[in-house]
Design brief:
Number of helices: 4
Number of domains: 1
Order of helices and strands: EEHHHH
Structural class: mainly alpha
Largest sheet: 2 strands, antiparallel
Strand content: 5-15%
Number of strands: 2
Shape: globular
Length: 84
């Protein structure tokens, strides 16, 4: 494709198809930030949820979306999910 986007991290131009396939890197960053932001119990559930989605062959896009929602909802509720 002729379209391009600017990567914020490296400040280099990458084409659109390269940008679409960066989900693995985004999932890795999400896991690192979840480890910092979530409680120990919630992070364990986060890891189990991620592993289960991998086992069930969910796409990287679906995993990223679901894990992002998990982290955001965990921060909003500010409680452990296993207590609900």
């Amino acid at each position: 494709m002729t379209m391009s986007v600017i990567s914020k991290e490296k400040k280099k131009t990458i084409n659109l198809t390269e940008n679409l396939y960066q989900r693995e890197k985004w999932i890795t960053k999400l896991v690192q930030s979840a480890k910092k932001e979530l409680s120990v119990a919630n992070y364990e559930l986060f890891e189990e949820y991620n592993n289960e989605m991998v086992r069930l062959s969910h796409s990287k896009i679906t995993r990223h979306k679901n894990l992002t929602h998990y982290v955001k909802l965990s921060l909003i509720y500010n409680e452990d999910w296993n207590q609900r």
